TrEMBL record:
Keyword entries, A-Z: Hydrolase, Signal
Keyword Zinc (UniProt): no
Annotated ranges, domain AB hydrolase-1: 49-269
UniProt superkingdom: Bacteria
Organism (species): Streptomyces rubellomurinus (strain ATCC 31215)
Keyword set includes Signal: yes
Lineage, top ranks: Bacteria, Bacillati, Actinomycetota, Actinomycetes, Kitasatosporales
Name assigned to this protein: Alpha/beta hydrolase
Amino acid sequence: MFSLKNGRLRRLLAGAAGAAAVVGAFAVVGPANAATQDSAADRAPKPTIVLEHGAFADGSSWDGVIAKLRRDGYPVVAAANPLRGPASDAASLRSLVDHLKGPVVLVGHSYGGSVISEAAVGEPRVKALVYVAAFLPAPGESALQLTNRFPGSTLPGTLDQVPFTTADGSAGTDLYIQQDKFRAQFAADVPADRAALAAASQRPVAQAALTEKATTAAWQTVPSWDIVTTEDLNIPAAAQRFMAERAHARTTEVAASHSVAVSHPDLVAGVVEKAARATR
């Protein structure tokens, strides 16, 4: 038998005990560190959600989406879209993004998709793009060109053209949807009283904005999500699918009108939150 008085044996046992203590310490510290990292991720600030409305709408079209996002703890801003042209509207949106702090998720509805596609270029704090029944033009393409590429839009026959003159004397044409045709064309799955309010408060888009060609496309480099509305009479579903597939966007399809943010606010907010979680 070995005696504990043997100095060499005592040193071996002491070394083994020390090694066991070190292993045990790592066994405890490892999971604790992982838990700390998870907790830190949970505490990371949520990105600000910036919502860009499209033609024939205004910021109130996002009301239901905003309510859901705020309940879930997201800071939200519904930007006022001038609806004058993708380049100038993108500059306006970029000014707002530059004013905000922290990461941002840009969400664009309809023509607003053209705007966020340009506004996000060169903006490293824009972590994700969400397109809602929207245009995702490539450089050289316009909204009107993409709409006409596929059959199904009945928008032209519902439009009311209103000439305008700017302060510098240049002339243009604003486009509205005729109020008595608004619900059937734009918001068929929205309650009639709500659609009537939207028809009365719609903001016109400059005709030139729909023919202005994109010069850049942020969806080529920024992760993108897309909601395709299969009962849309403004932007045909086939056009929406084409753009979403080309952008490699994570796509959700829903049987909804063009006014999906009003008729399905929880679905829209859910997709936005998926995009926001992917940025953290």
